[in-house]
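Team,

Forwarding the record for the chain on the shared tracking sheet. I've put the sequence and predicted structure together so nobody has to dig through attachments.
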Amino acid sequence: MKVKRDFRKYLIPMSFMVLVFTGCNPDVELNLVNPNELGSESFWQNANDAQQGLTAVYATLPTVESFGRMGVGIMLIQRGDDVDPFPLTNVNDPGTFTTTSTQPRMLEFWREISKTVATANQVIDNVPNIDMDETLKAQIIAQAKFLRGFAHFYLFHTWGPHIPLYKNTIQSVEDLQLPAASADEFYDSMEADFSEAATALPFKWDAANTGRASQAAAFAMLGKIYLYQERWAEASAEFAKILDREYTLDGVAYEHNFDEANVNNAESIFEIQYDANLSGGWGGSGGNVWRGQAWENDIAPPGYTSQGSADVNQWVFDLFMAQTTTGGEEDPRTKVSIVWDYPGAKVYQDDFLTNFSSGDLLIRKYLNFDHTRADDGGWAASTQNWRNIRYADILLMYAEAENEANGGSANALARLNEVRARVDMPAYTGLAQDGLRQAIRDERVRELSFEGHRWFDLLRWGIAAETFNNNPERRGNSNANFIQGRNEYLPVPQGDVDTNPNLNQNPAYL
C-alpha cells in the first residue's frame, strides 16, 4: 500500500536554512533578523524541533529539482549507454555531453541536493544538544548522517573531486568558501556517515515509518562506496549483512518494482517517496512544490512528452533477446523494460504503430501507460516512487564484489542465479572469474536498465569513454562525442566558482 505523507510539515524548519551553496554574495549582511521567520537560535529546543529538522532533510529528496526529476531522468538515466537521448538545449545537455557551467537543470539539481547536505548538517550539529529521549535522538542523528552521505554520494559522482565537502552548519560566508575536496576525503566522509548511521537504525522500519533510512540502507550504501573503490572484500561483507533477512525477491513480481500500486514492497530497501502535491509548482524544498515522478517526461517516447525524450539503444534489446527462459520463452523483463512492435504493443493509450515504426525501441519501465501521455494530470501526477536501492541490485553487487575478491566464487554465482531464477532464466554454471564478471555486468543491464544505475556503472568500471567512442550509434540522436577526461563529470556551477575564491573550475571545462 502506498504510504502518503503530508510533506507540508517539512517546510517549518526550512526558514532557518538561509545559506545554501549557490550564488552566495559575500557582501550580504548576515546578521539581519526577519521577525516573520523562525531563527536557528530559537529552534532546536525539543524533540519536536529535532523531528521537524529531520523532516526538512527528507523534504529535499522528492522535489522536481532533486530526485523528483533532475537527479534521476536528466543526471542519471539519460547519461547511460542503454538510452539515446534526443537533444534539448538546457535540458538534455548532460546526456548529450554538452553541459556548460551555467546549464539550468544542472544548477537546479546542484542547489537542491546541496540543501540536503545543509539541512542534514544542521540536524547533526544541533540535535545532540537537545534534552530528549536518547534512543530517538540517536535515530534522528543517524538518519541525518545517512542522508548527508547519500547526498554526498551523488554530489561526488556527478561533479567529481572538483567541489567542496561541507560537513558543518554554515554560519558565515567564510564557511561556504571551502576548496575542492579530494576523492579520499569524500569517501572517508561517506564511510563514516553510513557506518555511524548503521549503528543506531533498525534493520527495517515498521509500516508506520516507511520511507525512512534504515540500517539495511546504510549497509547497502556503505557496500556501494566500497565497491566503487574496488575494496571488494569489504563491499562483499557489507552486502552480506542484508542477504537472507527481511528483504526478498520471493513473491515480488519483477514488474511490481515499477508500478504505483506496489511501492515499498518486500524487495525495496530505500525509495524516494513521492506524494505528488498537485497544488504545488516548480521549485525546490522550502515552498509549495511538486513532489512526484516528473522524470517520466524525460524518458517517455517522443510525442508523448513536452521534453526532449530518449529511446533505447539496439544493443540492450539484443542482449535481452540473446537468452530465453528455461521454457524457451522471452525474458519476461524485456516487455517490462522496453516497448517495440510486438503484437498488441501500446504506447500509453495508442497502438504502437500509430506513431512509431517497426524498428523503434522505446523505454517502457516506470512509465504510466494508464495515462494518455507523460504529463497527463500534471508534471508530478505520478507517485510511482523511485526504487533507489532494491534487493536484486544488492544481490548483483554482492556477486560482483565476491567474484572480484574470490575469482569465480560459488557464492557470487549463486546470487547471480538467484536474480535470474525470479524470472525463470536458466542458471549459469562453471564460470571462471572473467566469464562471471561479464555475466554479472550483462545481468545488471537486463535487471536494472533505465533505473539510473548504468551511468555510474560505466563510470566506476572506467569504460565510459571507451564505450561511447567505440559505439557512436549509442548517441546517434545527438551525434554527441564523448571527450575522455571531461564528460565523466559535470562542470562546477559557475556561480560558485565566481563567489568562492578558494574554488576553481573543473579544468576540463576551462
